[in-house]
From TrEMBL:
Belongs to the binding-protein-dependent transport system permease family. HisMQ subfamily. This is General L-amino acid transport system permease protein AapM. GO terms for cellular component: ATP-binding cassette (ABC) transporter complex. InterPro entries: AA_ABC_transptr_permease_3TM, ArtM/GltK/GlnP/TcyL/YhdX-like, MetI-like, MetI-like_sf. GO terms for biological process: amino acid transport. CDD domains: TM_PBP2. Keywords: Cell membrane, Membrane, Transmembrane, Transmembrane helix, Transport. It holds the Pfam family BPD_transp_1. It is found in: Cell inner membrane; Cell membrane. One of its GO terms (molecular function) is transmembrane transporter activity. The keyword Glycoprotein does not apply. The chain crosses the membrane at residues 32-57, 98-114, 126-147, 159-182, 203-221, 233-256, 277-298, 333-353. Its main location: membrane.
Length: 365
């Protein structure tokens, strides 16, 4: 009997389930309460969807000379977006010079897309970023080759939001790595300075830092010395983002097994060599999700610069609503701005998922 049982054929492993039905079963109907919630959401969507479609598409006004046609139609007034799109995107930047922030913005987006390709990572990409940011800044400022000088007080809209977010994160990230290394290092004085800085910055809201940079900091400058408001806000955002990113990086450093440190030291590498070549790549690969979460939060927090008088994307949309001829179309304005924020944040989150899968391949069993 024992020999017959041992010789019985072994069934092949069941292939992994895939496809839309498998995804729906795993994510929407995995339990009875998930199924109930899914059916409830579908019922609410079925009740609301016809009205939303009628408002957004069937009764919407896409082209109009004034708001009277929109109010008469009763649907969405996308003509308001068409009329105010340039102001929302570029703020009070000179109307005839809008091509300059548009080109600068496209250059930054192109560099972001190029940075998503891992094959391009390296020193040439850093050179491209330095050159690209220099060209974008030159286009925004002007004052050469026949381009009129435009002060930062006239900047606004999406280029200002991108400048605050991209430059802020690009400068804050290496700063945060140094803070994290200092906090996890063995030098007591450096460690104490890093701890005090991180905890002090994380203990106050971003609004307070922006207020200090805009109102309090000029009071400590010598008479006659001024620092541009946008630069002060940018420095405040960098200091704020660096403190939060440092804690994320520190979490990755602490997750590295001690054997990795000992193996790197056994190879005879210096501190900076084993940190750059062995420790940091693993630590950053472990904390990609919280890093991207911080990036997305920082990108959205740039809208707080309105409290110091800078006109970011959300602020220009609010200002466009104050036009007496087009007053009242709040939903259209906020949906337009939300679509732009969603595009950037969703693309960033999807890319982080791709990076997480790529870097986790070496840890899979």
């Amino acid at each position: 009997m024992t020999q017959e049982h041992a010789a019985a054929p072994v069934a092949p492993p069941r292939p992994p389930r895939s496809g839309p039905l498998a995804w729906m079963r795993a994510n929407l109907f995995s339990t009875w309460y998930n199924a109930l919630l899914t059916l409830l959401v579908l019922w609410v969507a079925a009740q609301a969807l016809p009205g939303v479609i009628a408002w957004a598409l069937r009764d919407a006004v896409w082209i109009a000379d004034d708001a009277a046609a929109c109010r008469q139609a009763g649907g969405a007034c996308w003509a308001f977006i068409a009329e105010k799109a340039r102001f929302i995107l570029f703020g009070t930047y000179p109307y005839q010079q809008h091509w300059r922030p548009a080109v600068a913005m496209l250059a930054v987006i192109a560099m972001l897309l190029a940075s998503a390709d891992r094959r391009l990572w390296g020193r040439p990409l850093l050179l491209v970023w330095g050159l690209g940011l220099g060209v974008a800044g030159a286009l925004m400022f002007g004052g050469f080759a026949g381009l009129d000088y435009v002060p930062t007080a006239r900047w606004g809209g999406l280029p200002l939001t991108l400048a605050l977010a991209v430059v802020g994160l690009a400068v804050a990230f290496p700063f945060s790595i140094l803070l994290a290394l200092g906090r996890t290092g063995d030098l007591p004085v450096v460690k104490a300075i890093c701890v005090v800085y991180i905890e002090a910055v994380r203990g106050v809201p971003l609004i307070s830092i922006l207020f200090m940079a805009s109102v309090m900091f000029p009071l400590f400058l010598p008479q006659g010395v001024t620092v541009d408001k946008l630069l002060r806000a940018q420095v405040g955002l960098i200091l704020f983002a660096a403190a939060y990113l440092a804690e994320v990086v520190r979490g990755g450093l602490q997750a590295i097994p001690k054997g990795q440190y000992e193996a790197a030291a056994a190879l005879g590498l210096s501190y900076w060599q084993r940190t750059r070549l062995i420790i940091l790549p693993q630590a950053l690969g472990l904390v990609i999700p919280p890093l991207v979460n911080t990036f997305i939060g920082f990108f959205k927090d740039t809208s707080l610069v309105i409290i110091i008088g800078l006109m970011d994307l959300l602020s220009t949309a609010k200002t466009a609503l104050t036009d007496p001829a087009w007053r009242g179309f709040y939903k259209e304005a906020y949906l337009f701005v939300a679509a732009i924020y969603f595009t950037f944040c969703f693309a960033l989150s999807r890319y982080s998922m791709h990076l997480e899968r790529t870097f986790s391949q070496g840890r899979r069993r």
